[in-house]
Amino acid sequence: MTVTRVLLPSDAVFPNSYGEDVLYGMALSPDQIYLYWELTEWRIRLYQTHGLQRNIDSLILRGYEQTQAEHGPVCTFSTGITERVGERFIRDLSRKGAYFFQIGVDHDGFVPLLTSNVIDLPGATTSNLSTSMPEQAEWWQVFLTYTVYEPSPWIGGAI
Asked: CA 34, CA 158: separation in Å to the nearest integer?
């Protein structure tokens, strides 16, 4: 196996954000997960347009352990966050398993704005895990998979 080493110039600049809604997690060790998120203004405006009028500056980060229980994932982690672009290390997870995370707001119950990938901790047994999402309000569910379609110059007019 060949390892290629890439050196970046000392003046390399990375953007603070990439302009995309994302909540991504990865296992760093058997008891630690790294999370990165970016919540765009577009998604916030989308939710506000469709009835989410509360203060969206009070975001909540929740973690769920996927279990073999018949009721689906169990919320094992919940904390307030203020950053719309951020990262966090989740340490000292008590059980080896598969986790996913959501960022949302309290709007007569927890309403998720972003959902992460499923993160399998090393040593976890992931067969027969429940993949259902926790019970939540119905009106927001369509927005988690909302796609924007730009108008096409090919439709309804000459170029």
From this structure: 49
Rounded Cα–Cα distance for residues 111 and 39 (Å): 14
Q: Per-residue pLDDT tens for 51-75? A: 666 566 689 999 988 865 566 788 8
- Cα dihedral 139, 142, 146, 150 sign: negative
The SS3 call for residue 12 is coil
- Composition of the chain by helix, strand, coil, percent to 5: 10, 35, 55
What count of Cα atoms within 13 Å lies in the side-chain half-sphere of residue 158?
0
- Its pTM stands at 0.69
